[in-house]
Amino acid sequence: MTADWITTPLTAALLRGALELERTPHGLLPHRLPARARAQNTDPQLALAESQPSGVRLALRTRATAVELDVLATKRVYRGAPPRPHGVYELLVDGQVAGRATADDGNTVTIDLATGANEMRPGPVTTLRFTGLPERDKHVEIWLPHNEHTELVALRSDAPVEPAPDGDRPVWLHHGSSISHGSDADGPTTTWPALAARLAGVELVNLGFGGSALLDPFTARAIRDTPADLITLKIGINLVNLDLMRRRALGPAVHGFLDTVRDGHPTTPVTVVSPLYCPMHEDTPGPCAFDMDALAEGRMAFRAMGDPAEVAAGKLTLTVIREELSRIVAERSADDPYLSYLDGLELYGEQDHAELPLPDGLHPDGATHRRIGTRFADVLAKALGSAGGKTGGPAA
Fold it and tell me: Does pTM top 0.90 for this prediction?
């Protein structure tokens, strides 16, 4: 390291997209749920998902031509499954990708898919270096990996940096499943929500949680308390995956979730988005499980374990959830002009699947993320246009 490097303390002012920062022995860990919500959660899957910084980025103003970021990544290894790619860090200059890096080292958690047991092996901090940046005043963002637990240790540059000004871009808060979290996207700026946000010119707060869009009341309260100019809620696939509830429970749970959000955002546009097309669960209930035959062949795939005959007894499928969400929004919108419904099949439907199938039967690949993100950018533009842009934060 050269003596010309300037170390800038890592603070909340430099970060966007996180709801809270936790001080760890190594540095700062971004969280996408606040401490109160985390304290009420007992699910290791959600604990993992919310600590993966999908949509979280450093936002800087600087003339620096070189920037270094020290990080401690925590990687997951699943015994018997194909190795996971390293998380990607992307640096943007004035909105354009100007560098990519990975932390090849770090902590490793090895998980046994058969038993759920896990083993932690500590690893070293990695220094990511981005060089060759233009020597002028510019807006620099470093997007953290959407799918890799990342502790921020130190930030250095060859010129002073300061927090990027907030500007007047509307804030879009999105909640959804692993598809919204970014599963199988090519990088943090090309998850479909990140791409849609960049195309629409909005600031993203991504509360997409892999396996964990389950209408949890503490998630609704986190949304209630977070400033936003537009809120979208993608509901359905995880409810089926986990076989979490029956049709009788779905309606009241959705109403309760929306009621809580409305407590903090009485006039903020809210769009309820139903599930994308997923053949295995269109008419077959969950639960969803790993396809062990595929794993034996070195492929990751999933299969639906339910019986279509069980739908008559109240089990949920994606078709049932679309019917229920459409009905609920239609009923509520009679008294709530700021509530709307979007059929997820408009974002990714049966014809899209014929062209761009889901590689593991459940999650979109990079090309499909780009298609969904491009389509959703139009949804954002129309929603913000009808709302007149920024609409303010939560009610006092």
Answer: yes
